[in-house]
TrEMBL record, chains A, B:
Residue ranges of domain HTH gntR-type in the record: 1-69
Organism for this UniProt entry: Aliidiomarina sanyensis
MF term (GO), any: DNA-binding transcription factor activity
Keywords: DNA-binding, Transcription, Transcription regulation
Protein name as catalogued: Histidine utilization repressor
Amino acid sequence: MAKFAVIKEHIYRKIESGEWPEYHPVSSENELSEQFSVSRMTARRALQELAEEGLVTRTRGSGTFVAPLKSQSALLTIRNIADEIRMRNHKHHAVVRVLERVVAPNAVASALQLSPGAEVFHSVITHFENGHAVQIEDRYVNPNLVPQYLEQDFVEHTPHEYLCEVTPLTEASHLIEAVLPTEQQLSWLALENPEPCLQIQRRTWCRDGVVSQATLTHPGSRFRLGGHMTFKAPARVSNAEV
Amino acid sequence: MAKFAVIKEHIYRKIESGEWPEYHPVSSENELSEQFSVSRMTARRALQELAEEGLVTRTRGSGTFVAPLKSQSALLTIRNIADEIRMRNHKHHAVVRVLERVVAPNAVASALQLSPGAEVFHSVITHFENGHAVQIEDRYVNPNLVPQYLEQDFVEHTPHEYLCEVTPLTEASHLIEAVLPTEQQLSWLALENPEPCLQIQRRTWCRDGVVSQATLTHPGSRFRLGGHMTFKAPARVSNAEV
DNA sequence: AACTTGCTAATGTATATACAACATAGCAAA
DNA sequence: TTTGCTATGTTGTATATACATTAGCAAGTT
C-alpha cells in the first residue's frame, strides 16, 4: 500500500473507532511526517484527501480537525425525459399545449426573482412514450435571460436542450411530491381516471439569475425515479434514515 | 490567481468552447510545464483536479483525455424522519405496528439476496409529527447480518439509528414513486380518505451484503422531498432535463 | 502471421526545500 | 484594560528531482 494511504488508514481508524470525536485536532503535517518517517508532502496528501472526502476540515494557520457529523445525501439521477425514453429504445414524441407570453402569477414571479406583474414566457408540453403520455412539462422562463424562447420548435428539441445551449447552468433545486392531477392535467395526460402523480418542481440558475421554473407531472403508474449512492465514509453518517 | 488555477482555466476553456471534443488528448504534464513555465508537479495538480471534477480522464502510460459527456445527477437529501421532525422543533413519536420473524416473500428474498423461503425480520412503524402520521416505515431485515434486530425498542430509537450502529453501511439505492395507499396503509396512517402517497423504496448494503429493504410511505399532503445541486462544470452537462 | 522483446512516453509516488498566507497566544506599550 | 506587535506553528503554493508503473508502438524472432 502507498505510504499516503497508510496514513489515511491510520487517521480513518481513529475517527471511526470514536477515539477522535468531532472537532478533535488531527496531527499536523509536520507531526505526521515525523511519526511515519515520510516527507511533509506525503503526509499532506493524506490529510488533503481526507478533507476532500469530508472526514476532516482544514484551516490554514489553525490546523486540521475531525469534521462534524453530517446527514447523508443521496444521489438521484434526474434525466431528460426524451433521452430516458430513447435509452429504453422506445419512441418519444411531444405535443405543445401552450406557448405564450403571460403576466407571471405571483408565485412564479417570486420564484424567478422578478417583480410582481412582470411578463414571462410560459410553455406546457406533453411527452409521450410509445404513444402513452408520461410527463407534463409546465415551464415558466425568465424572458430577460432567454429572450427568444417562444420562437423555438419544441417538438424537435425539448426546452431543456435549448436552455442548456443558451444558458450554461450553474445550479438547480428540486421539490418532489405526490399529488392528484387537476382536471386540466388529466386531460393533457389523456388519463381516464384520476391517479396519483409524481410531481417534480425544478428551478434552475445560470450565473445571471434564475432561468426557469418547471413543474414535471408524471402518472404514478408509468414513472419511477431511481437513485443510487455509495458512501465513502460510512462511519461519518449520523442521521441518514436508512 | 494561483498558477495551477491558470492552467485549469486554460484547459477548461478549451473544453467548454468545444475546441477539444470528447476523447481529445490533453497536453501532457511535461508539455504543460513547458508551456506555462511551471514545474511538472504544478501542471500535474491542474490535471489531477480536472480529473477529480470529471472533466478529463487519465490513464497511466497513455495520457490525459477529455472525458465523455455524462448525464447529470442531482443531490437529494433524504434524512432520518425523526431528525427532520425534531429539526422543525416539532414533536416526534413512533408506534410499532408489526415486529416479527416471517418467511420472506419472494420479492423480499431476492432483494435481500437470500434463497426463496428464507426467514427474515419484518417491522412496520408509523412515525408521527405533532400527532399526525407522516410516514409508514415497512422494513425487512437480513437476519444473518443483524441477528438481534427483533429485540430492539424502536419507540426509543429508529431502526435506522440501530442499523447504523451495527452495520457500517456502504451503499444505498432508492426508488421513488407516487401510489395510492392500500387499505392497511390507510389505517396505519390514520387517514380518513385515500390520498396520493409518496413512496420511497430503499435498499442498503454493508460490506457483507444487503442489510435491509425499507418501503417508506408518506401522505402526499404532509410530505415533500427537497434537493439542491450545483454544477462544477456546466459545459459538461449533456442531457440533464433541466 | 503470431508472438516476444525492448524502447519511449506518460502518469503515479515520494522526497527535500523554500516561501507565502493565516491564526493564535503571549507580551509590550498606550 | 485595551490595543497593537511579534513569535510561532499551521496550512497553501511552488520547484526540482528521482524512481516506479503502465500503455503503446516498433522492431525483431519464431
